[in-house]
Design goal:
Number of helices: 10
Order of helices and strands: HEEEEEHEHEHEHHHEHEHH
Number of strands: 10
Strand order of the largest sheet: 2-3-6-4-7-8-9-10
CATH class: Alpha Beta
CATH topology: Rossmann fold
Radius of gyration: 19 Å
CATH architecture: 3-Layer(aba) Sandwich
Oligomer: single chain
Largest sheet: 8 strands, mixed
């Protein structure tokens, strides 16, 4: 009996230890470089959304009275939602309401980031736009970039939403660790962030954007995700673009297809 208890205890320690390592590898939150409410543009409203597990996450809502659609934006793994404000404003000027989501442990949000946690953040955001802001589900467009694509895909499954935008999506956590030559991490990551299987359950129109010179998430991962999509889809290949310079150095190639997608 004592031996069994010891094995269970050691297993729990190992699992918790692996989880901590994985979270440190995948999430790079910034809690210091934030904006105060009075530093925001007048049309940007800072809101805090409570998740199912009672964590309050920081978000930016930017209304556009001319549109009955809303775009819900999930950012990449570094920084916080404050650093994406310029992109959120551009999306808003394209003619749509925008809600930018700050994950738990990022910016002013409570908690600590984890795969399960950011999925709860995503579901809370979707509930907020449909139940509090009263947008119809088929007028919701979900946008994920980099690790944000994992949240976007997860919450879009089996829903009749208006559309899904995936910028630099990856196939799985294991594939990312292998591509980065962190082979030891593949064992720890296991089946985490399994976008390639989840995308089978997405039935809404999908736009995929990827740069050919992406050194963080290889271009071919974006193509594999795209090829697996069964719904109406479009792939935008941006020649020469890397992972972090899509929206600023390749503005026309990046923003034009997004505008066309959200106004279709």
């Amino acid at each position: 009996m004592k031996q069994s208890v010891s094995i269970i205890f050691l297993s729990i320690l190992l699992i918790n230890g692996c989880t901590l390592v994985i979270n440190k590898m995948l999430f790079f939150p910034d809690t210091k470089d934030v904006l105060t409410a009075n530093q925001l543009p007048s049309n940007v409203k800072e809101v805090f959304i409570e998740t199912e597990d009672r964590v309050k996450i920081q978000c930016y809502f930017i209304p556009n009275q001319s549109s009955d659609k809303i775009l819900v934006y999930f950012h990449g793994n570094a920084g916080n939602i404050c650093h994406r404000l310029s992109d959120l404003l551009i999306m808003n000027r394209l003619g749509i309401n925008v809600l930018g989501i700050g994950y738990r442990g990022y910016g002013k949000s409570e908690g600590k980031p984890s795969e399960k946690g950011i999925y709860l953040d995503g579901q809370a955001a979707l509930n907020y736009v449909t139940q509090k802001l009263n947008f119809s589900i088929n007028n919701v467009i979900i946008f994920g970039r980099s690790i944000g694509t994992t949240v976007a895909i997860d919450i879009s499954r089996n829903l009749n939403i208006g559309g899904l935008i995936l910028v630099t999506p990856f196939t799985s956590g294991k594939d990312i660790s292998n591509a980065s030559r962190l082979f030891f991490a593949s064992f720890l990551i296991g089946d985490l962030f399994n976008n390639i299987d989840k995308i089978d359950h997405v039935s809404c129109p999908v736009l995929v954007i990827h740069g050919t010179q992406d050194r963080v998430i290889p271009f071919q991962m974006g193509k594999r995700i795209y090829n697996k999509i069964k719904a109406k889809k479009r792939f935008v290949k941006i020649e020469g673009a890397g992972h972090n310079n899509l929206s600023n150095e390749y503005k026309k190639s990046y923003w034009l297809p997004i505008f066309e997608f959200i106004t279709q």
